[in-house]
Amino acid sequence: MNAIIASALLGVLMMFASWIFDNEKTHTRIALAGLLALIVANVLQLNGVYTVPLDTKGMLSFTQFGLYVNTILFILTFLYVWLNGDEIAKIGNHAADFYALFFFILCGASILTSFNNLLMLFIGIEILSIPLYILTGADKKNLNSNEAALKYFLMGSFSTGIFLLGITFIYGATGTFQITTPILNPATGMVKEQLMHSAGLILIFVSFNFKVSAAPFHFWTPDVYDGAPTVFTSFMATIVKATAIIAFVVLFHSQFKALGYAWDLLLTFVLMATLFVGNITAVFQRSVKRMLAYSSIAQVGFMLFALYGATSFATEGILLYIMAYSVASIGLFGVLIKMKEYSFEAFNGLAKKEPLLAAMTTVFLLSLAGIPLTGGFFAKYYMLNAAVQSGIGLWLVVVAILFAAISVYYYFKLIQAMYFAEGEPAIYEVAQGYKYKLLVFAVLILALGILPNLFLSYLYF
Amino acid sequence: MVLLSILSIPFIAAIILLFVKPEKIANNVAVAASAITLALSIYIACKGAANFDASWMLSLNARFTLTADGLSKILMLLTSISFPAIFIATSKNQVKNRHQFLSLMLFAQTGLLGVFLAGDALLFYFFWELALIPVYFLCSIWGGEKRVAVTFKFFIYTFLGSLFMLIGIILVYTHTSDQSFAYASFKAANLTSHQKITAFALFFTAFAIKMPIFPLHTWQPDAYEQSPTAVTMVLSAVMVKMGLYGVIRWLMPLFPDAFSAHSNFVVILSVIGILYASFIAIRQDDMKRLIAYSSIAHIGLMSAALFANNEIGTQGVLIQLFSHGVNVLGLWIIADIIEQQTGTRSLKEMGGLAKQNPTLGILLVGFAFANIALPLTNAFVGEFLMFNSLFQFNPWIAAAAGVSVVLAAIYTLNMVQKCAYGEVSEKMNKMQAPNMPAQFVLIVLFIVVIISGVYPAPFFDLTADTLQQLFIK
User: Fold this and answer.
1) In b/e form, how buried is each residue of A42-51, taking b as 16+ CB within 10 angstroms?
2) Alpha-carbon distance A431 to B188, whole Å?
3) Residue of B57, B133, B198 lying closest to A394 (CB–CB)
């Protein structure tokens, strides 16, 4: 509750900040202070010290898991703003406006981690999405950015429609929006209601696939990620995507088993398609930014393994996954922002000119590829373990690792460019301070890879 | 604690070397670190069983467990001998950014030692991958012309293999009674026979790629040829042993039924590999490729003897693990000296080494004899036991594998003849003063070859506990 109220208030406050202060550096500082306050507010509730007393009539429920996810998301946003503050200021006229949007997104995110009711879920998703449409189009003079925003908005509204239809069906079948109501039991013989319930769930599933950009509903992703200003792509591909995935997992851990066998089949199809499309298409990309867009699709394929069963491996794993994936991606985008162009060739010889930067990029890439000693390894490990435990059949896991091996190909292409190719890298001057900030991300990745317990134990206290 | 320091000394030295630029100091640091590691390894090998255990990942129940039994000790010794030998032997070679090169080498050593000492499945997997990453960078940065593509092929191959192993580990892990990665729990895992076969196949793929067993060997000759020679030495002397180690440590005790059920299949594949590699070796003109194929043939024989699944063969393999490493290391060092000084690897352009540098000529002959396992050399002991076991397994297969001895004599002696004898060729004329550090290493290695060939008893003693665990229940 604390987080929802605080983030909404802070969002409004940020809007006024651009009115009062002219200096964009100040905006960034206020935003960082606000994020700190938000983290504190949330941790107060997480530790049971203080919660704003508000009766939500059971529409929201604050679990340890949800609150911990909040903390992770807020800290990630903090790190993101801390790293990218200067870049955000370069876009548009008032950085504070964007920060306000971030806070609204975080407000949506906090609802999505604690919904107990389909209506709240819907509101959360909308609060999360609408600022995103604006952020995508933030580079007003860039046609690509405009196109991406429009595309995103149209597709987004469409999927919202599907989502609402799904909710309607479920309401029709069960007479309630609460997700904790007992799922319809096939033995009771209410065939029509069951059919409606299933149809509703499938529609929601489709809509969620759109939000997390799982194939075959991924078509907007590369264009939007490519068109949006790179700083905001970084935000969308990490924190926003992580939120959507968490909501997805929470909802379907509680609901989807109603579909029984058919559900596994459906999920398997989507998962396979996502892994296939993401990995295979990423191989052929010439632009690193587009490659990262497809790789983010591929990574979602792995995250979807968490949906097979509500085991501890699935919940812990999805947490690790969003942490490892987000930190690595924010770091990578942080390097990408400093490049004059986004082709692979632009990275040629980076290791010679900027050894530290190249080494850190390597750590991020190794993590995304899932190599041990980096966070990405345990993320993938937990997902695979969850899959094996849920008993869906080993062949699916085998196929998944084949795709993981393919992913090594395109991640390592960048490493090869940096280390083994000769050339002058097309990179802007990078300040020493910026490198040290990135170093924090690299250290986090290694910490996640060596002692993931450090980050998971909080889940249980 | 000694076990932990064996791992941490090369690791810390590797980190220090990242920041030490002067070549001389860097070299000394690397040699010193690897020498201390060697001293500690010998201490542990003499001392008896050693253990180290610390908590690592609580929620997964994975522990940081290191154990040293006979099998681990043999390979630990091999690793610890190889690295100082390589560092000293190649100390005169020109290497760009030597400190980084040495640093990555020491990281690789840490990974390799970790693989051989890990007593926990997840830790084993961790080190298994860690040994690979530095080698990937070593080969891709310092290798030959086609290095990037070749190394990438090597990397993808082995990475894919280890991912299969990861699934195998997960599969066994989910069926352990106490949900842990400990070796003992893995051994007692409650798998159905069908699951055992699946897990066997998953583990086996990883090991087969690493060894490599025909037809998964295609990455190897290219990788050996394109790597800088120091790395080739690591690859062929130590790294291929990871696969064999994995078979003895994990496959045999974990899935004994699946193991014996598939032994025919694997032995036949191995024998095909031996003959295939031997025939190709005969046709090679490039000295590096010749040694590479000869190494494939030898590893093939070892895997055949292992999968013959009897005590005598396993004993032979345990000894041969060490012997083959020393022998192939010697051959590589000689090939490297010749290449560095004459600029050629083609046997056609060689000749007269014995006249130009008699000591090196004699050493070449000595290591060549060890390569074809003549009596009095260390390889004889192992190969004799291995052929014995293959004969017990199936005389026909033993006969087929036996052909490889003849073939080995053909290609090895052919190499010696073209390289050491005859008129001094134009290229060989360029041989300068002998490379003293390298020759010193060669002589030491050769002494090891002879001593362990004449008096192999310590190796039998060292590996007795492993054999006992495997074959006497």
Assistant:
1) bbbbbeeeee
2) 56
3) B198
Closest chain B residue to the Cα of A316, Cα to Cα: B59
Which of B56, B137, B164 comes nearest A401 by C-beta?
A: B164
The answer to whether the CB atoms of B170 and A408 lie below 8 A apart is no
pLDDT in tens, A302-335: 999 888 877 888 888 899 999 999 999 999 999 9
Interface test with B, best of A302, A453, A454, A457 (most B CBs within 10 A): A453
Q: Which chain A residues touch B170 with a CB distance below 8 Å?
A: 381, 384-385, 388, 397
Question: CB B59 to CB A389 under 8 A?
Answer: no
Q: Select from B19, B56, B60, B122 the residue whose CB has the most chain A CBs within 10 Å, as the one to mutate to test that interface.
A: B60
Model confidence at B473: pLDDT above 60? no
Give me the residue from B129, B137, B163 closest to A405, CB to CB.
Answer: B163
Question: Closest Cα partner for A293 from A408, A410, A209?
Answer: A410
- Using an 8 Å CB-CB cutoff, list chain A residues near B156: 405, 408-409
Max intra-chain CA distance, chain A: 70
State how far the Cα of A404 lies from the Cα of A400, in Å rounded to an integer: 6
Q: How far is CA B137 from CA A67, B132, B142, in A?
A: 42, 9, 8
Percent of all residues in chain B with a pLDDT value above 90, rounded to a whole number: 4
- The whole-number pLDDT of residue A233 equals 92
Give the tokens for residue B472.
């006497």
Q: How far is CA A133 from CA A94, A174, A208, A228, B76, in A?
A: 17, 33, 17, 10, 59
Quickly list H helices, A338-431. 350-353, 355-369, 375-390, 394-420
Residue B276 CA to residue B297 CA, distance in Å, equals 8
B153 closest CA partner among B228, B247, B216? B216
Q: State how far the Cα of A275 lies from the Cα of A223, in Å rounded to an integer.
A: 18
State the Cα–Cα distance between residues B224 and B433, nearest whole angstrom: 27
Average pLDDT over residues A66-92: 90
Those residues with Cβ within 8 angstroms of residue A220's Cβ, 6 or more apart along the chain or in another chain: A151, A152, A155, A156, A210, A213
Taking the CA of residue B112 and the nearest CA in chain A, the distance in Å comes to: 15
Omega before residue B456 within 30° of 0, cis? no
* CB distance A319 to A69 below 8 Å: yes
Contact B232, B179 (CB under 8 A): no
Cα separation, B17 vs B130, whole angstroms: 18
Q: Are B225 and B296 in contact (CB under 8 A)?
A: no
Query: What are B285-339's pLDDT values in tens digits?
Result: 888 888 888 888 888 889 898 888 888 888 888 888 888 989 989 988 888 888 8
Query: What's the gap in Å between the CA of A43 and the closest CA on chain B?
Result: 23
Rounded CA-CA distance B221/A114 in Å is 57
